[in-house]
């Protein structure tokens, strides 16, 4: 019995000599990697944002707190050039603002006709059918060098955007319901009357309509100024369930002239974007 006690005492002395303290082991709610918060934030600022959210945030409580701080995401926005258009409209969630800026892009494929009709579903191809031409007058965006042209019969084309495939998962869309911004550019020929129409739907998983935008048809008289005009619409507070966006536009000439005297369309856009930036 005495030998056993001595052995235990020796073991305790050995632990003490080696500097180990069993009772000082971190508990499950303590950080295993104690790092000053300002240094930890700087480390996170130099990591890919997906890694910060999906890996670092899950390590321990301290790391989660830093990964969720407003200052971290506000600084990421500053370093990567994501600025507010209106300084008086401050985001309520800087992390969400960063994510939406980071992912922001035109979800429509081939919006200017540079790849012919690729990416578009032709719904109607009346008259002499859709055609692609150079703009008759310069577009406000000097990068636009081509446009789609309609004929004397109705011409309409469409795209269906799958939000999940584009990186916007269902939980994200349902919880945050980010703004969905629609833009389209259209112009008539100066010497022929024409009409322009657009039709946009937000659809659920079954491709049933959640919300729609259907403005009145725009008509142009003959002998107009043939200048480019932009349509802009923003879907807000549309509720949960949105999984697809269907974009349809087109038109025709109104004088039934053979050839391509109808409405011109180009540089169409569908974007998921921050509310303060629309």
Automatic annotation (TrEMBL):
Q: Name one GO biological process term.
A: glycoprotein catabolic process
Q: Which residues form the FBA domain?
A: 97-274
Keywords assigned by UniProt, alphabetized: Ubl conjugation pathway
Domain F-box spans what residues? Answer: 29-76
Q: Name one GO molecular function term.
A: ubiquitin protein ligase activity
Classification via SMART domains: FBA, FBOX
Q: Which GO terms describe its cellular component?
A: cytoplasm; SCF ubiquitin ligase complex
List every stretch annotated Disordered: 1-29
Record field: compositional bias (Polar residues) = 10-29
What is this protein identified as?
F-box only protein 6-like
Q: Which gene encodes it?
A: LOC115407597
């Amino acid at each position: 019995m005495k030998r056993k006690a001595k052995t235990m005492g020796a073991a305790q002395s050995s632990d003490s000599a080696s500097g180990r303290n069993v009772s000082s082991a971190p508990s499950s709610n303590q950080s295993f990697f104690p790092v000053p918060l300002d240094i930890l934030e700087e480390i996170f600022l130099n990591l890919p944002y997906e890694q910060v959210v999906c890996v670092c945030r899950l390590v321990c409580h301290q790391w989660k707190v830093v990964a969720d701080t407003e200052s971290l995401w506000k600084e990421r926005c500053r370093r990567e050039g994501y600025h507010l258009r209106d300084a008086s409209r401050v985001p309520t969630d800087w992390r969400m603002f960063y994510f939406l800026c980071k992912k922001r892009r035109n979800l429509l494929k081939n919006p200017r006709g540079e790849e012919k009709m690729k990416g578009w579903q032709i719904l109607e191809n009346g008259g002499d059918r859709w055609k692609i031409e150079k703009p008759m007058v310069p577009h406000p965006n000097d990068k636009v060098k081509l446009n789609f042209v309609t004929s004397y019969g109705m011409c309409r084309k469409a795209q269906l955007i799958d939000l999940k495939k584009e990186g916007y998962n269902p939980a994200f869309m349902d919880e945050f319901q980010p703004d969905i911004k629609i833009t389209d550019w259209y112009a008539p020929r100066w010497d022929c009357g024409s009409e322009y129409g657009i039709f946009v739907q937000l659809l659920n998983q079954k491709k049933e309509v959640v919300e729609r935008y259907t403005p009145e048809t725009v008509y142009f008289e003959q002998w107009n100024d043939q200048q480019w005009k932009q349509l802009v619409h923003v879907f807000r507070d549309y509720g949960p369930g949105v999984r697809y966006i269907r974009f349809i536009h087109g038109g025709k000439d109104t004088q039934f002239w053979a050839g391509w005297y109808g409405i011109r369309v180009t540089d169409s856009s569908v974007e998921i974007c921050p509310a303060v930036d629309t």
